[in-house]
Amino acid sequence: MRRARSTVWYARGGEGLKLPPVAYWLATLAAVFYGAADFTGGMVTRRVATIPVVLLSQAVGLVMVAVILPFLGTVPQAADLWWGALAGLAGGVGVGLLYRALAVGTMSVVAPTTAVLAVAIPVVASIALGERPGSLAVAGILLGIASIALVSRPTVSAETVARPSGLGIAFVAGIAIGLFLLALAQARPTSGLWPLLTARLASVTLFAVVAAIGRRSVRMPARFAAIAVGGGALDMLANTLYLLAAQIGPLSPVVTLSSLYPASTVLLARGVLGERLNGWQTTGVVAALVAVLLIVSGG
């Protein structure tokens, strides 16, 4: 039902009943914070095993949303909680497989494959459910998908060429992350942040079970734990912004804007670590900015 309502907003855009632009800005901010969270997570996982980092960051998000919820006064329905739990499981699987693919595969293949699938699945689903974006918004969505692929491509070296592609794992990871975005967007606006609570409960439980079965230590040096905590807080903030945007706006442009996070990651790597952007990445960043302008104008 919520998808149909968003379609009405699009269809009547010329009659004065337009999409509240705040949804687009929330989605764009979500991309900024998603990229920052990935950047901090990448910094830590260069030195610490992936499972403890992901488990700690996910647990931080769980604590944050659990503390905030009592003050919001929202009352969810059971369906909203189940959508959140499904999103948490899909997102947990996606993140785990993404890190695995990046560890064993070629990043220039893994990153764009995962990112493009993650945005393409919700966009295709939303259009199949009846959304009809305007021509400018469609152009922005297509350009946004292309920019994700471009900005995710690192400089190729002899070492990366010699590595296996990791394409199969990346493909499944992209599907799982796309399902996370799609499932989380199904929660009703009246549910508030409750779907994020069940999402985090599901993902924390998943990684705790993985750590227990594998008998993996979750300890890490305090300085790395602090960075992981910061990354978890940024990720929860991004999820909150995305959820709010998806609750009040049509999914196809919202999910595209939220998925422009690789641009934020590479810009942070440029500013903090001094990493240079190659030609593909520079083109991708410019394309992402143009995509934002097209989608916002199309709304």
Detail the topology: elements first, then pairings.
Elements: H1 2-11, H2 22-45, H3 50-68, H4 78-104, H5 107-128, H6 135-151, H7 158-162, H8 167-184, H9 194-213, H10 222-248, H11 251-258, H12 261-273, H13 279-298
Helix pairs in contact: 2-10, 2-11, 2-12, 3-9, 3-10, 4-5, 4-8, 4-9, 5-6, 5-8, 5-11, 6-11, 6-13
Note down, in words, how this protein is organized.
By secondary structure, the protein is mostly helical. It has one domain. 77% of the residues lie in helices and 0% in strands. It is built from 13 helices and no strands. Helix 2 (22-45) packs across helix 12 (261-273) and helix 3 (50-68) packs antiparallel against helix 9.
User: Number of helix segments?
Assistant: 13
What series of H and E elements makes up the topology?
HHHHHHHHHHHHH
Uncertain residue segments: 1-17
Mean pLDDT: 81
